[in-house]
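REVIEWER CHECKLIST
Item 1: Sequence provided? yes
Item 2: Single chain? yes
Item 3: Sequence as submitted:
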Amino acid sequence: MATITDGQYATLASGTRLHYASAGERGRPLLLFLHGFPEFWFAWQAQLARFGDSHHAVAPDLRGYHLSDQPQPVEAYRAKLLVRDILELIDHLGASRCIIVGHDWGGALAWQFAISHPERLERLLIINATHPVPFAEGLARDPAQQAASQYMNWLRADGSEQALAKDGFRVMEKLMLGMGTNPAWFDDALRARYHECWSHGLRGGVNYYRASLIHPPTAAEPGAAGLTLDPAKFHVRVPVRVLWGEQDQAMLSSLLDPLDRLVDDLQIERVPDASHWIVHEQPERVNDWIVRSLLS
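Item 4: Structure as written out by the authors:
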């Protein structure tokens, strides 16, 4: 198992400073891991340890999280700026191309990166994160997906970060563990790591939801129902491998159905006994899937 080194910082060309952890030598093929909400780089510890022997495996704290810069304005979390962070991080790490593994919001950014910068990507590995077109369609027209995603509108509301932090992050833990099938992975040691992460601030992570136009419709805002996304402009031409925990209570498996018309080279592996948190629940299964995905 490779040694993981954290406490590293990249000052990007645009001025944003990102903290990251890594394993393996710079100059090897870059394998970039992007976490979701409300996680941080540590979500990928099992993957860094496994793939640092063969790759330069890197997991940043995304903008707004943990030890990375946390700008306060909602506008600082527009998708184009978050995608620019990824591009500039790849440049900072000295790679011309890379493989991205993304989960949740990290997966959403990875989809956007593949659409915007396919020339910098060898392949895309997605874990329970949906392409923007089926997600927008689901939120606009599918009552089941609208119901499953109502938490997004709660997070978008003023004061949600204070509510999440109240009583020792009680609501944050409830939100996180409520999407899983087996909370045993969230043991006392991991709880302490996440509480330390969350103590650095929650506004940045919540601002991802506030900045996005893709959310369930409300009486005040049309959200996804007000969007018209041309699938031709969101086509993905790099190979895509998807791992999907089918017990995900936030993103329904029906979101996978349209992918074959949006991706040229697609393989999907469904895991019936895993949830949105498959990275935590079954880390070795995730590692084995990554190995297969790198070769397929």
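Item 5: Key structural point noted by reviewer: The chain has one domain: 5-295.
Item 6: Recommendation: ____
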